[in-house]
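#data-curation
PF: Archiving a pair of folding outputs for the training set. Convention for this channel: one message per protein, sequence first, structure tokens after, nothing in between. First:
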Amino acid sequence: MSKKILITGASGLVGSQLTEMLLQKGYQVVHVGRTKRAGIPHKKGASFVWDVNRQEFDTEALNGVDVIINLAGAGVADKRWTDSRKRELLESRTKSLALLYKTLSTTNHQVTAVISASAIGYYGFMGNEVFTENSKPGTDFLATLTKQWEAEADKLASLNIRTVKLRIGIVLSDKGGALIEMAKPVRMFAGSPLGSGKQNLSWIHIEDLCAMFLKAATDETLRGTYNAVSGDWVTNKEITKAIGKVLNRPVWPVHIPAFVLNLMLGEMANIVLQGSKVSADKIKQTGFEFKHTTLEAALKSLKL
């Protein structure tokens, strides 16, 4: 019997592609979200409703479920970081996991593992240091958010549930996300490095990320935290030039000044003006094999 996997936050970029991959491989998939949909697209499936703010969960969703993959959380780069937006970013993550903990601790179920999304923002930004899973957390907003996010996931381990946290880097996909936004100005002949252009970006191809979630869901030896990055970090200037090469567009040598981005984005500009080098060694040691190991090959595999 194949595993039955429940996904929260499944309507997003990662959840949509992960669902398709799991269904193609013969897994049963259940979605839990803020609204009930008619089912999982293209296949027979089921969707259930939870109310994170009211801490309500339709426990029928757990019937037969072996693994939960938690992707719930408001988009970090979707809106400007006002105080209310920061609170929403945090609570959409921590309250989701708190609801899972509450539900799993008070309901009969057969869930053996929870795989929770996290982010490399945990490490903050520190020049040329290479971050491993043992590195200390940063002190900026994203690092603080991610630390609290993971603390809620860690509580699930006290229920004797195998818990895995994947710290996700910049996801490369042609269906949405950061890459599409980076490609827009290049496509319009306005591509330029951002800020210094020297900030390091740790990326992962969407196919590899989905495969990593599947490995975490099915390999019972995986526990704790793993960096979900390719290990092939590149600078902002390098990725901009690589996008230009794939699109056959020029990339101009004049950089977009940091102060312009700060005026446009406020504190959120840190996402594009700063970066980090994040190691993939730990996940590789589990036997996980990346399909996309270099930026150029990864970009060529996508339809930009």
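PF: Second:
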Amino acid sequence: MQSGFEMFAAAGLVMQASLPVDTLPDWATHPMVPSGVDLSRYQSLVMLGQGGTRLWEYIAATSPRPDDTRFDNTAYGLAEKFVEDHIGGAAWEVVYPGHALLPLGRLAELAGWGRPSSLGLTINDRYGLWMAHRIVFLVDAPAALVSTDTSGHPCDTCLDTPCVTACPVGAVDATAGFDVDTCAAFRIEVDSVCAYQCLARLACPVAVEHRYGSDQMAYHYGSGLASIRRYYGA
């Protein structure tokens, strides 16, 4: 039988971490409480994320009729199999995706996945900006997973900052950070060049071999665009 690490990695969930619940800082646990999560029932917080294009390829090969929930459904199914096969079917509960507004970027940093970039996205030594959380769940058991540690911050040694100059509306600033509202306003304009892609993200020179293809980019950014339009009433 594959280990939990191997099963997840084979499907493209290469970003992995298991954190003991009783060591989590308050900023990580407080957002779960309003959603009715009883943290006293669980021992571990497990985080899984994609890196590069492998998960996209895995879903294309295993989901003959893909829909807009393909990523969520695949991640849930793999997590469920992990709980059943590797930790004895212990009680578990998904907290992301869900109603809890988890600080995913800070959790990624806590887990050693990377640090915030000028775009607001976590950047990792191996996968650059081409990584994302897919599922976070609590489980009533120790969950031994291999942490995906990062040894540095690529942005610290980037002198040209191509992500800054590539943004057509100046929403990316290496010092001031990422201007969410400016980016969103431009993305929802008619025929916006950033509707289904991010020029600043594409300009990043880190881990270009893991960059999403055009179909995957359009899928993720199309989903995000729909959420932006709802939030801004566009």
